[in-house]
Amino acid sequence: MKKIYFISLFISVLILGSCKDFNESNFPGFDEAAKPTNVVSYTDTLTDADYVTISKIALAAATNSSDTTKATVISTKKYFPSSAATGSLIGAFLKTKYLYADAGSMAAVTYNYDAAYDTTTIATANKYTLVATDYDAMGTATNQPGKYDNFSSSIDPNQYIPVWLKMVKNPYAKAGTVMLIRYKYYSTSTIQLADVFVYDGTNWIKYKTTNAVTKTFVYKNGAWKDIVIYSGLTTGIKDFTTYSVSGTQVWGWDNSYLCMKMSGYSGGNLDNQDWLISPKIDLTTRSAATLTFSHAGKYFGTLADETTLWVSKNYVSGDPTATSVTWTQITIPTNVTNTDYTFVSSGKVDLKAYIGSSVSIAFKYKSTTSAAGTWEINNVSIVEE
Question: For 87-117, what is each residue's pLDDT tens digit?
Fold first, then answer.
């Protein structure tokens, strides 16, 4: 009886072993795929305690006094300063919080971000310093600016300046118009301050610097990474650069429509070739990348020649048409309407061919004496998806 038992056990082991070998030999990866996984989606809003934890992570990684200052701001103010490496810090935090997430897991994280307005993008004509008659126009009673020609803790500039902008200074402003107003403020002494105000189509609103932002992170290769690889041309040119190959007209930021704008028309159609070039986009650690942007345009002759998109692995700076630089043209899925200035999405541009490299993206504008269109571009985004 014992012999029969051991023989049966031996045969069972052989069968099980043979099945395992069969699966691995005939279906590579079958056994690995059959293991339980923990691919999950998280939704988080950072708490005060989370900012303290992230501050400690930032302090541990700090290499200079500037890094230390940023870490302290995160802990005490409960937001990220605009110069902080938000993506990598939140990624490191998620790794400490979610220890057992598997590759492919996602986390949508909402956090506070201090995005001070880039005042270098505001046209000189939209920067103004209040004078005595302006304070007087806001009222001359004891509790009004005109009494002392300044504001104070008892005379709120955010109450008076928006009304003055709408009624006196800029009553016909278009939605999206931005004004920087310099004014005197008294606390223990009189100092000059400056605030940015944006017209929303109805009222002038002080630009809110601390905003709640939600970003999505993906867990890959043992790390949480911000799914947004790059975002630009949202509030100004910032880290994009321009280069004029020919013609006197150039790319410039339009404060009214919040976009980069190029036109070869100036009293007539003129020859131009102008490039709008992104900074280096690092795709070396990514597994996928998709580019999108918004654009509008009108008065073009041949869109396929006059509004084009290019990518380069070896562009550094200067003339993009130099012989040492290699550019590859990529198709814009949805071009401008060429009938009006309605912004349209470019559609998704797949950059998978450039995974493993750092690249520059460029928008190339051309005009001739026959046709000189206007091209407007904003909201450039590259995400891992």
Answer: 899 999 999 999 999 988 999 999 998 877 7
Instruction: Note the pLDDT tens digit of each residue in 270-317.
Output: 999 999 999 999 999 888 999 999 999 999 999 999 999 999 999 999
Fill in the DSSP letter of residue 169: I
User: How many other β-carbons are positioned within 10 Å of the β-carbon of residue 247?
Assistant: 18
DSSP state of 155: B
Residues, the chain: 385
Q: Are strands 204-206 and 374-383 parallel, antiparallel or unpaired?
A: unpaired
The β-bridge partners of 383 are 228, 290
Res. 221: pLDDT tops 90: no
Residues 6+ apart with CB under 8 A from 170: 177, 179, 199
| Distances from the Cα of 119 to the Cα of 10, 122, 136, 195, 361, angstroms | 80, 5, 27, 10, 25
pTM over 0.70: no
Spatial separation of the C-alpha atoms in residues 178 and 194, rounded to whole Å: 13
DSSP one-letter string for 210-267: EEEEEEEEEEETTEEEESEEEEESSSS-TT-EEEEEESS---EEETTTTEEEEE-BSS
